[in-house]
Amino acid sequence: MCGRFALATEKKILEMLFDLEIRTNIDLRPRYNIAPSQQIAGLRLSPQNGEKELTVFKWGLVPFWARDQSIGSRMINARAETVATKPSFREAFKKRRMLIPASGFYEWKKEGKSKQPYYITRKDGRPFSFAGLWEHWGQGGESLQSCAIVTTEPNELLAPIHNRMPVIIPVEKYDNWLSPESDANELKYLLAPLTPEELILYPVTPLVNNPANDSTDLLINANISTDSIEK
């Protein structure tokens, strides 16, 4: 799964990443411990005019047909293997795909009775984007835009840590992922794990376990033995 990530990237860098001018008033202050149920930034094609726009979503997808918003707490991730068929996600996968910018993400490796968190990011330090899905929900005068991150099998780097990893869309495939014209076979191809050569990982402090902790201190290498990664 993907349960925490960071986004600490300047606005102008995001504009270059997505090839657009960010005109909306979105809080893009650095965040190092983004957790489910929080508000996150995401890029989609506008339902009004089809143009790219960066807007805000609650992390935890609430299907349009849901009776209430509580289901969102169980919908932070969508499995690549079933996203096209599972009722909770299939309509969003067909019509409402998005990109979720990130600087890195966290995964936990079980070690005895505890879990050691690891931070994963690109070797070149560039921001990247998760494959995401979004939904609009409204009932009883309430309205909500929510989203989920698509996950897939781990690559060779992540496999010793966790049995899932988020889908990272290559920059040159952003338009393909967002386009309503992309066919199912093309989309399925995009749901593969990113090659391990493009990523690095290292152990970090368990302080990341608490969403209230949100600073660069979370990214400091814990310097535990690398042997534990291979076990």
Can you tag this structure with a few keywords?
231 residues; mainly beta; hypothetical protein yedk fold; seven-stranded mixed β-sheet; five-stranded antiparallel β-sheet; 13% helix; globular
How would you describe the overall organization of this protein?
The protein is mostly beta strands and 231 residues long. The protein has one domain (5-230): hypothetical protein yedk fold, CATH 3.90.1680.10. It contains five helices and twelve strands. It has helices spanning 11-18, 90-95, 174-178, 184-190, 227-230, and strands at residues 5-7, 31-34, 39-45, 52-59, 77-79, 97-102, 104-111, 114-122, 128-139, 142-152, 165-166, 199-203. A hairpin with a 6-residue loop joins strand 3 and strand 4 (52-59). The protein is globular and about 50 Å long. The chain starts with a strand and ends with a helix.
Outline the fold blueprint.
Elements: E1 5-7, H1 11-18, E2 31-34, E3 39-45, E4 52-59, E5 77-79, H2 90-95, E6 97-102, E7 104-111, E8 114-122, E9 128-139, E10 142-152, E11 165-166, H3 174-178, H4 184-190, E12 199-203, H5 227-230
Parallel strand pairs: 4-10, 5-10
Antiparallel strand pairs: 1-2, 1-7, 3-4, 6-9, 7-8, 8-12, 9-10, 10-11
What's the gist of this structure?
With 231 residues, the chain is mainly β. The protein is 13% helix and 34% strand.
Order of helices and strands: EHEEEEHEEEEEEHHEH
Mean pLDDT, rounded to whole units?
Answer: 92
- H/I helix tally: 5
Helical percentage: 10-25%
Largest sheet: 7 strands, mixed
Low-confidence stretches: 225-231
Tell me which CATH architecture applies here: Alpha-Beta Complex
Beta-strand segment tally: 12
Strand percentage: 25-35%
